[in-house]
Amino acid sequence: MFWDVKERLPKPNLGELQRLRFLTTTDFPPFNYLDRDGRLSGFHIDLVRAICDELGVADKCQIQAMPWEQLEDALERGRGEAIIAGIAVTEDTRAKYAFSRPYLQFPARFMMPRTSAATEPVYEKIEGERIGVIAGSGHERMLRAYFPGVKVVTYTRQEWLYADLKAGKLAGAFGDGMRFAFWLAGSEASGCCRFAGGPYLAPEYLGVGLAVATKVNDPALAAAFDYALQQIALKGRFAELYLRYFPVSFY
């Protein structure tokens, strides 16, 4: 999704790798969770299998789930070689980890009633309109910076934002596209609304997206993941996984 088809990344040689253990959690659906039978499942689990296939180390791959607060220590103590659990890529975390390139970014989206959903250029059509957003979020800062002409209405709870949008008290809502997509696909939305305009990617407000983390002194392994992720994307496998877990695209 985010790879230059003309870029050629070197294929890594992991022949001497004894095992490749990925650490994750069970509380980040649809990325990683326990299914009805108690099996570890999710987008990240299938992505790990695809990564291991591309690297030719499927027989050496393992996935272990643990509480979020134990991930950093487990990696440091050598209980795993990589973390795939949504660790934010920031200046602080770059001091602790080496990261692959981002494999999934979360765009900001407008969500509006079906009868009045605007098309681009959205900023011209929402001038002076009431737009709901979660208070104190990167989306609020982005909304105020990118769309200074709107009347910003802040909320402390997501469900209150949704309720006012459905009730017609807002011209639209602005926020995380993935979260909005799940709401739009659910029964609670009752088909009231749809995406309008966008998507908007702004790393300075929303972060760079999801990446695989390794030990800070193991950039070679992070680079190996880059190769695998690029191949998965170019072969269409990433798109298949994306559509499987996100039937309403947030792009």
What is the count of DSSP helices, taking H or I runs of 4+ residues? 10
Q: Strand pairing plus helix content: what structural class?
A: alpha/beta
Total domains: 2
Going across the major beta sheet, what is the strand order?
A: 5-1-6-13-7
Based on DSSP secondary structure assignment, what is the total number of beta strands?
13
* Content of β-strand: 15-25%
What's the CATH class label of the largest domain?
Answer: Alpha Beta
Superfamily (CATH H level) name of the largest domain: Periplasmic binding protein-like II
Please describe the structure with a list of short key phrases separated by commas or semicolons.
alpha/beta, 251 residues, 2 domains, D-Maltodextrin-Binding Protein, domain 2
Per-chain topology:
Elements: E1 20-24, E2 27-28, E3 32-34, E4 40-41, H1 43-55, E5 61-65, H2 71-76, E6 82-83, H3 91-94, E7 97-99, E8 108-113, H4 122-125, E9 130-134, H5 138-146, E10 151-155, H6 158-166, E11 172-176, H7 177-185, E12 193-200, H8 203-206, E13 213-215, H9 219-234, H10 237-245
Parallel strand pairs: 1-5, 1-6, 9-10, 9-11
Antiparallel strand pairs: 2-3, 3-4, 6-13, 7-13, 8-11, 8-12
